[in-house]
Amino acid sequence: MMGRKLGVGMASKVMAEVGNEFIAKEFGNMAKQKQIHVLADETLGGIKREYVETNRKAEVGDYIVTHFTECFSEGKAYEVIFENCGEIVVLDDEMEEHILSEENYRTLEPTDIVRLRDENAVEQRFRLVDRKAEVGERVLVKMDADADEHNLGKVYEVIGLDGELVDTSGFYDDESTLNLIQSDYYVLVPVESESSPQSTDDIIANLVRRVAELERRDEEHRHVIERMGLEVDAVERSYGELFSDVKRDIETWTQEVEKVRRTADTAEANLEDLATRQRDHLRRLREMERRASKKITLDAEVLAKLIGGDVE
Questions:
Q1: What whole-number distance in Å separates Cα of residue 109 and Cα of residue 63?
Q2: Which of 56, 233, 284, 310 is in the most buried spot, having the most CB atoms within 10 Å?
Q3: Residue 166 CA: distances (Å) to CA of 21, 35, 158, 170, 213
Q4: Mean pLDDT of residues grouped by 10 in the chain (312 residues)?
């Protein structure tokens, strides 16, 4: 009973800090010790992570354990593939679907404890801590870090500090030193080897860390969405201005073409008028030449008669 009161008290304290009703409910179920399960966590690059059993309602993607040993292996974790009317559906060892109600399973909650093997293949436990690393410490690169793909989920030693960045023993694709900001890694802090599961305080701290991480990611996503919205607005404005300029240019070109067409029409009319006048002028010249030629011929005949004395 004292343990239950302790859990509720802690739940109230954390609830005041993060304002999350789910955590408050969860803390009430964590007053007693939980059995540890070790699973590969793909969100950490496949590193082994410790999970504890809770009474939380499972969601798609969560892992659960169940006491139905006629269909499931005792203590084995099974992934929830989908929900059905408030119940969950999982696959057994024979890949057959089974529907489980909430009282027939326990949900596995990830802790901040991971397990890594040293150079002698001895497994050691480390706590994931969200803080700036110091030289000599080891860090785990997050899966959403700003790094080359081959570095995601890898463990490196910090070999130097550069302002807000830490230099690691890893390398980028171009073989330059992999440096990371604090949001791109977890510090791996060794913990003493122990067979007992995490205490309620550890689980509470882990949940608070997870909520803070989710809030941070939500804030980052919100900023990205807002930035994308601003960029889209800027592109729309730029294209709007460009289209307006193009429209004005087309209108100007149309007006210029119309002017050229009218000028060409006027020039063509002027040329036609000039040609007509030229033809009239040539016709008058030919008429004048014809008349002048006839008059000269007559005078010559008269002149001849005069010379010959034939003129009466």
A1: 8
A2: 56
A3: 37, 36, 7, 11, 20
A4: 39 45 47 72 93 92 90 92 91 92 92 90 92 95 92 94 93 93 95 57 65 74 77 76 81 84 80 82 81 61 65 52
Q: Please, how many CA atoms are within 13 Å of residue 223, restricted to the half-sphere of its CB?
A: 5
- pTM of the predicted protein model: 0.52
Length of the chain, please?
312
**Tokens 């009319």 sit on residue:** 269
Is the Cβ–Cβ distance between 202 and 210 less than 8 Å? no
Half-sphere exposure for 305 (CA within 13 Å, toward CB):
9
What's at 259, amino acid-wise?
Answer: K
Exposed e or buried b per residue across 64-85, where buried means at least 16 C-beta atoms within 10 angstroms of its C-beta: bbbeeeeebeeeebbebeeeee
In what helix (H) or strand (E) does residue 298 lie, and over which residues does it extend? helix 200-308
β-sheet bridge partners, residue 97: 91
